[in-house]
Amino acid sequence: MYRKRIKSRCYHVCPAWIKDSAVFRTWLLTALAAAGIDEAEFMSDPGRYQIDRIDNDGPCAPLNCRISTPQANNRNRCPC
């Protein structure tokens, strides 16, 4: 997995997402549909939605990511 340190935390990104953007796009479209967000709406305003990790200590991977608003994402912070 790809790892990057930011503020002494290690982030792991799903290897399939790095290797093949089509795999990431498929996940993104599925996540948008699950959140009830139209792709055109998502693309029209880049700052309106973000990809949020459910478990901040977990990887950036399909089972640990979701689409949320910046406000919801800001509430999902690590207690450190």
Primary descriptors:
alpha+beta; two-stranded antiparallel sheet
Major sheet characteristics: 2 strands, antiparallel
| Domains (count) | 1
- Rg result: 13 Å
The helix content, as a percent range, equals: 40-55%
Write a structural description.
- It is a single chain.
- It contains 4 helices and 4 strands, in the order ββαααββα.
- The chain has helices at 15-19, 21-35, 39-44, 70-75, and strands spanning 2-6, 9-13, 50-53, 65-68.
- The chain has a two-stranded antiparallel sheet. Strands 3-4 form a two-stranded antiparallel sheet.
- 2% of the residues are buried.
Describe the secondary structure blueprint for this structure.
Elements (H helix, E strand, L loop, with lengths): L1 E5 L2 E5 L1 H5 L1 H15 L3 H6 L5 E4 L11 E4 L1 H6 L5
Antiparallel strand pairs: 1-2, 3-4
Could you give a short description of this structure?
This protein has 80 residues and is of the alpha+beta class.
